[in-house]
Amino acid sequence: NSPPVFELLAEVGFDWLFIDAEHSPLDTAQMQALMQAAGATPCVVRLSASDDLHVKRALDIGAAGIIAPQVNSVEHAQRIVEAAKYAPAGQRGLGIARAHRYGLRVREYMQSANDETAVIVQAEHRDAIARIREIVRVDGVDGVLIGPYDLSASLGRPGAVDHPDVRDAIARVRDACLEANLPIGIFGVTPDAVKPNIEQGFTMIVAGVDTVLLATAATSLLTAVRQIQRQAPVET
Asked: Are 43 and 35 in contact (CB under 8 A)?
């Protein structure tokens, strides 16, 4: 929860920034402050829960899109779309919020929001894999993000994201998205982790974690300094 860190990441040049409300203690006001720090860089919020209230709150504070976790059925995907779209495409409520500049640009925002707001569902459970060809064809779903770690756990291979069973499930999602001409994404901590997926046609790439980036850089720095110290001549 650091607006200066978010501002710095926006300056680096990422296409978009991922705000994770599912596995972090961030509340709505904190997420809004991060988006304000990000400036023109689009921010996508992974919801803490896939329901109407959390969809509405994320979009009202100005998220460019939402990522709904654990969407395992067509009906659930349809509910997410309905919550994210204004009538007649859905049933999103209207309240004074940052998304339309606190009421100053309500009409302009409502005219474009349905087309410009990304609705992304996560395929991270074996039930989603079983129904993926139907889920990707739900009108209003704009993309699918694979959660490899939760997926591996649901397949009885917790953490083994390179296990053949997990790789096969990921391939099934990829094939379904390609058939439906729908963007597909995946999460990876490092470039090496996402490299094979990019080569296979994944275009929505979530790479890196703020805390991991900081810890990795700090560890590298400390290791290098200690190595220099060990190699320095000892005065007698």
From this structure: yes
Residue 30 confidence (pLDDT):
98
Give the pLDDT confidence of 156-215 residue by residue, as tens digits.
999 999 999 999 999 999 999 999 999 999 998 899 989 999 999 999 999 999 999 999
Asked if residue 146 has pLDDT above 80, the reply is: yes
Helix intervals (H) in the chain: 3-12, 28-38, 52-60, 74-84, 106-116, 126-130, 132-135, 148-154, 164-179, 191-199, 210-231
Is residue 236 scored above 80 in pLDDT? Answer: no
The 10s digit of each residue's pLDDT in 35-49 is 999 999 999 999 999
Task: Look at residues 120, 124, 122, 200 and name the one whose alpha carbon lies nearest to residue 169.
Answer: 124
Both tokens of 224, joined, read 């290098």
Tokens 């009538």, residue? Answer: 87
H or E element that contains 160: none
CA separation for the pair 231, 224 (Å, rounded): 11
pTM of the model: 0.92
CA distance 139 to 121: 12
Helix pair 52-60, 74-84: axis angle to 10 deg = 40
Question: Which of the residues 23, 54, 76, 100 is marked catalytic?
Answer: 23
Task: Give backbone dihedrals phi and psi of 66, rounded to 5 degrees, phi first.
Answer: -130, 150
Q: Residue 155: how many CA atoms within 13 Å on its side-chain side?
A: 26
Single out the residue of 105, 146, 112 nearest to residue 129, CA to CA. 146
Q: How far is CA 151 from the centre of its chain?
A: 15
Active site residue 163: no
